[in-house]
Amino acid sequence: MNPGNYVALAVILFVIGAVGVLIRRNAMVIFMCIELMLNAVNLAFVAFARQHGQVDGQVIAFFVMVVAAAEVVVGLAILMAIFRARRSASVDDANLLKY
Amino acid sequence: MTGTLTAVAARAAAVPTEVPLAAAGVQRAAWLLLVFPLAGAVVLLLGGRRTNRWGHVVGVAMPLAAFVYGVIAFVAMLGYPADQRSRELTLFTWIHVARFDVPVGLRLDQLSICFVLLITGVGSLIHIFAVGYMSHDPERRRFFGYMNLFVASMLLLVLADNYLVLYVGWEGVGLTSYLLIGFWQYKPEAATAAKKAFVANRVGDLGMSIAIMLMFAVFGSVTFNGVFGQVGHASPGVTTALGLLLLLGACGKSAQLPLQSWLLDAMEGPTPVSALIHAATMVTAGVYLIVRSGPIFDLSSNARLLVTIVGAATLLFGAIISCAKDDIKKALAGSTMSQIGYMVLAAGLGPRGYAFAIGLLLAHGFFKAGLFLGAGSIKHEMNDEVDMRRFGGLRTIMPITFATFGIGYLAIIGIPPFSGFFAKDTVIDAAFETGGTTGWVLGLAALIGAGITAFYMTRVMFMTFAGERRWDEGVHPHEVPPIMTSPMILLAIGSLGFGAYETLGDRLADFLGPVIGYVPAEPALFTPAGIVALVLIAAAIVLAWAMYGRRPVPATAPHGSPLTVAARKELYGNAVNESLLMRPGQWLTRLSVYFDNRGVDGLVNTIAATVGGTSGRVRRVQTGFVRSYALSMLVGAVLLVGALLLVRI
């Protein structure tokens, strides 16, 4: 197996996620894009761990999953609250906290 | 050098420096003199409206009680031998810190008892007059409260046995003068005049307070005994400095040049105030101070020379102003300034002039108070008009006022046998006796002053009592009630006889001799200078008659000569003060304000504005759009990673 392919896939996934975060307005989609970026990173961790024959990267991948799960819980709760209050899931509408 | 030292020592020895005896008998109650008027002031000022109905009775009774006690103390003093009449009464220790020891004590001697009798005697008469004069004023009770406070302060001033307690009285009379000039404070002129008097007095008080500090620094004591006992050993510089500083204090209180400008404005106060404070008593405090500090002035001929110059200049200055004033009270005020100039001149002549200064002071207390009360009655009856061009023909309407005012007039211009003749001629003679050019200059100034005095007082008489009636419409003058005429009659009797009594037989000089340390020979009744003075006075009366008696007085003042215009403007005394002191002071404050606003505040404000402006622009970055935050995070992360990669390579 060639780790370069995995890393290339991870980069493609990360860029898709980052661009999604930047250009989409729907909070739900942004959320999914963030997950995509996290998983791209996870993929890179696992690929490098395999290449170097060390377990560290795989351990960190687990940690990232745990953190992502916790983050989803909190993030979705906030999303629900905002949606209930404003009847909108657009992140551009939630712009009161500014100068 | 040795010659000067022995001369100083000889003069120092001539000064009476022995410590006065303790007061005994009835004089042990001398504190009553202060307590009576002070109690009156406390009751009237703290009692409020409840005392409105009977306040004036208390106000009159208290100075009268003090006068009665003063007479008792005077009689007791006459019972002692001449060299044991100076008595001291220590009341309590005021300040006792390390080497600084200030007892509060009273000194009853020949000098202070003269003042006590003048202040309480003339003061009581003026209080009685004020009952009638202020009868329509709703604030009469407050007026009497202030007047009693004044009497108490003035008595403290003359009875104190040290300079610090004297200074308390000195400030007390300054305060009450301020309160009473501004008694009708709703009139802007009165409020301004009060402030002006206070500020001018502060300048003099500064000299006074520095003199007291200097006394403590050099002698370690501020009591009369302590200072006079050691002043003989002080350096000439110290005695001259003390003399000049005390003179500055005297100039402020006695309205002498260059601090004279407040006295004419002080006439905004009620007329009894003008009579008591700004004619008979307070303004003579400077003369008292110089005579009391005689042992200091005796040692400094320079300080004495300056005192005589100030006196001579002021006596001419005040007299010239009086010639052009149409306001009867201001004409009399200029005259007061001039007469006090005579006293200061006499006091500056040293021990041989002290008795004459006090003699003129006492005589002046009678006739000037009488003149002011007369002016007050006229003002009272003329609906508060003071312009003499609106008077005229009052001789038949107000015969008692005319008679008493006339006696005061004859007394002030020095017609024998009225008091001014005796009191003023002695001063003129003493000035000539100085000898040399100084004597001639001082004597001539005093002589010319006597002539001008006769001119302006005759002018006042003609414009007020003679000629046609130039009254405003609706003015119906009558003679004032007996409560106002009786004090005027008593003062007129004093003006008539007191000068002869005190001068003939050298009574006052003999009486004051032990405390002054010098007994002048009894002055001759008619000296060459006195005869010249009488001729000058007669000429001045004729001139005044030709100008104001023979011709009708125009209702509006004619333009007049440049001298008249200058005299009307008080010889530009106010203009000098304004251009030398007020304007530069204003410039200084403006400069300070400018520096504070632009300099100090400018620096602080610039820093604040810079920080505020910058942050105002920077905070625009916080747009509230989450996606732009995300973009900046991404850019930041990319830059960070790029930087790490670069560093690694």
SS summary, helix count of chain B:
25
User: How large is the count of helical segments of chain A?
Assistant: 3
Number of DSSP E strands of chain A: 0
So what's the overall shape of chain B?
A: globular
Rg measurement of chain A, Å: 16 Å
Specify the structural class of chain B. mainly alpha
Uncertain runs of chain B are 1-17
The rounded Rg of chain B comes to 31 Å
Average per-residue pLDDT of chain A, rounded, comes to: 91
Instruction: Report low-confidence residues of chain A grouped into runs of 5 or more.
Output: none
Helix content of chain A: over 70%
Give the helix/strand class of chain A.
Answer: mainly alpha
Describe this structure in words.
The complex is a heterodimer of chains A (99) and B (649). In chain A, 79% of the residues lie in helices and 0% in strands. Chain A contains 3 helices and no strands. In chain A, helix 1 (3-23) packs antiparallel against helix 2 (27-52) and helix 2 runs antiparallel to helix 3 (56-86). Chain B is mainly α. Helix content of chain B is 72%, strand content 3%. Chain B is built from 25 helices and 3 strands. Chain B has helices at 2-14, 32-47, 55-78, 110-133, 140-159, 163-181, 188-219, 224-230, 236-254, 262-265, 271-280, 285-292, 294-297, 301-324, 328-348, 351-381, 399-413, 419-433, 436-465, 482-503, 507-516, 528-549, 562-568, 573-618, 626-648; strands at 21-22, 87-97, 100-108. Chain B is globular and about 125 Å long.
